[in-house]
């Protein structure tokens, strides 16, 4: 058979799932060239089906396993140092894992390409100060417990403030108040800080700038900070707390609190502006809350309720059970929630990953009107390594969950999470 022109090969290859795309790149030199061009230019156009990323003690300390929902099989990938099984996994989005090493420093890792990017040091986060020895080597970290709304530490340095909104509900200034609450900072060993600071992180490409933003939800009280490619430090985003999930669209960073408040941060200018999209929702008591931009344009507010009444966290046989998932559409004009009864031909991916809503027309191997979920219970992100994880496929019609695969191939630690694979390279400048 005559060799196909490279442009035709690229058109064909761009419709493949990434595992297939990587394989065709190994067939011959012509196919390899087409694959390299697609990879380097980011021209593959198929919407990728998420995989479950996990580790296994038997696979090795540096090996990540990817379970393909399309092929119902597992791939094993060797990742760069430090060992993936020694890291905390605090997020995944756009093909990148966000990890925390045993010195509480953060890295981005692309499991497909093996690329690794070091993020700004943890000591540049607003609430962290290094404690160094005579040689300048960090021995411990001091964690401050202040917020912009409630001064918990060093009241002489900061004032309690509240945001002042204009008629468009954009924060224009902060007004100080007199409230001051004292609370002493804590000192942690370099490998212990991550258990008390890091919660969830996201990577959002800024396509127009050829750059990216990393958003980090962290303690105390689940505050928000961010860093761009090339930044030397994290930028704190006060004054709110209790964030649970983030998304990014049209230059705005959206963040939702556990009580359902949604804020949009405009990070494009020299002054960061905040807009209130939705206020606190009454009678909201979910165990987890997510925010999803649906393909048809709606902003969805998703609640997850977990049964943990008899939880024995040190038992390997016990697993927290997701027993209800509620979906609401955010009416941004009326500023209220409307219950969303059925996802029809769409599915959700929930957990410690970027929350996703995908079409089964584009992903025929997925089950319509279902939610694919992984464990994101606070205690499981930071410990309880022996406890089984709450992971499976949830039928949104009848509130029944099923196992993803049996027997369980993954280790309980680090907690498995969804990842949408990507070959795209990230600029670090």
TrEMBL record:
SUPFAM superfamilies: F-box domain. This is F-box domain-containing protein. It comes from Urochloa decumbens. It comes from the Eukaryota. CDD domains: F-box_SF. InterPro entries: F-box-like_dom_sf, F-box_dom, KIB1-4_b-propeller. SMART domains: FBOX. The lineage of its organism: Eukaryota, Viridiplantae, Streptophyta, Embryophyta, Tracheophyta. PROSITE patterns: FBOX. Residues 1-47 form the F-box domain.
